[in-house]
Amino acid sequence: MASYTIDSVQSELKMTLYNKEVYDGPDANGVTIISRAKMGTTYVFSWLVTDGPGPDANIVGHMQGTGVHVANTPDVYQYSLGLVFGDKRFNGSTLQISGTSQINGEWSIVGGTGELAMAKGTIKRTEIRYIGTTRISELKIHAFYTPMNSTTVSSNNTGCKFQKA
């Protein structure tokens, strides 16, 4: 008979980060892949995510994904995003983000990987500066996640055996 143990210790994550969207020029970090007069315009992007809003801020990752204009009013998009961390603390971990919102709105955190496994929460996005073709937004992240311990499964004639690796 197999036996196992489940530890469900949740950790809370509260942090403020900033993303930089550049819409044109040599530093553009997004492209329009479908262009429509009203609804349906689709963008693909890899926005920089930093620990501060200024030019001297450290890059902590990238927000990568798509945005689709989904309403007849301006600036309402359905987003499917992955916040991919590249900093020391969460290197390689991700937050999976989804939601319909305006520029100043809220997204749902619907999952995560690595240290942020099974994350659930929200991200409140607020535009703090829009100059020329560049938008800087504040990202207030609040999530709960379950840090995962890896397990191994072995089998023998008497059944399965689970142990922490």
From TrEMBL:
Any one of the GO BP annotations: phenylpropanoid biosynthetic process
Main location: secreted
Residues spanning the membrane: none
UniProt cross-references to InterPro entries, sorted A to Z: Allene_oxi_cyc_Dirigent (IPR044859), Dirigent (IPR004265)
Keyword Secreted: yes
Gene3D superfamilies: Allene oxide cyclase-like
Subcellular location: Secreted, Extracellular space, Apoplast
Signal peptide residues on this chain, from the entry's feature table: none
Pfam family, any one: Dirigent
GO cellular component: apoplast
Keywords: Apoplast, Secreted
Biological role: Dirigent proteins impart stereoselectivity on the phenoxy radical-coupling reaction, yielding optically active lignans from two molecules of coniferyl alcohol in the biosynthesis of lignans, flavonolignans, and alkaloids and thus plays a central role in plant secondary metabolism.
UniProt record similarity statement: Belongs to the plant dirigent protein family.
Subunit details: Homodimer.
Protein name (Swiss-Prot/TrEMBL): Dirigent protein
Organism: Setaria viridis (Green bristlegrass)
